[in-house]
Specification:
- Strands 1-2 form a two-stranded antiparallel sheet.
- Helix content is 34%, strand content 4%.
- The chain is globular and about 50 Å long.
- It contains six helices and two strands; from the N terminus they run H-E-H-H-H-E-H-H.
- By secondary structure, the protein is mainly α.
- It starts with 13 loop residues before the first helix and ends in a 5-residue tail after the last helix.
């Protein structure tokens, strides 16, 4: 029996890959960094991600990459800047939430991380963080046939699994 990969990899069309490539360090692994984006766009993207069930790359394609003029080329106007500015104004003014302001800097996404790993990263204070909120994101679905949380194989195989 072939072992299942340790993580689920989202599939992107060739066009989506070309649109993403200038802005992320890889297209097929759950840990990646953002690049070539204004700080406000990165912060707004992560703020939006905390309340979305989508992967960060999918969210970027669906909601922020609309200003890319040609695949693989950096736009003369900052990518997603208008949406990011509107999101910042809404979060700051309407909700009074200044946590988005802490999201400037190097952005590394760690998707499909267990709660244990998340707590380890948070505790070490290696960086500021914003996690997907269980208040807004359903953990009942199974992207790629996997739960969004770790389920021990022995427990899953037992009568308690279901």
């Amino acid at each position: 029996m072939t072992p299942q990969p340790a993580y689920w990899a989202e599939e992107f069309t060739p066009d989506e890959q070309a649109r993403l490539a200038p802005y992320v360090t890889n297209l097929d692994r759950p840990v990646f960094a953002l690049r070539n984006l204004p700080e406000t766009v990165k912060g707004a993207l992560f703020a939006r991600y905390s309340r979305s069930g989508k992967t960060l790359r999918r969210l970027f394609l669906d909601e922020f990459a609309d200003n890319v003029q040609s695949p693989g080329a950096l736009s003369a106007s900052p990518v997603g800047q208008a949406r990011a500015t509107a999101l910042y104004l809404r979060v700051f003014d309407d909700y009074g939430d200044d946590s988005v302001a802490q999201l400037g800097g190097a952005h590394v996404a760690c998707e499909q991380a267990s709660n244990l790993l998340t707590k380890l990263l948070e505790r070490g204070r290696l960086a500021a963080y914003l996690e997907q909120s269980t208040r807004y994101v359903s953990y009942a679905d199974r992207p790629g046939g996997r739960w969004r949380y770790h389920l021990d194989p022995d427990v899953e195989a037992s009568d308690l699994g279901p």
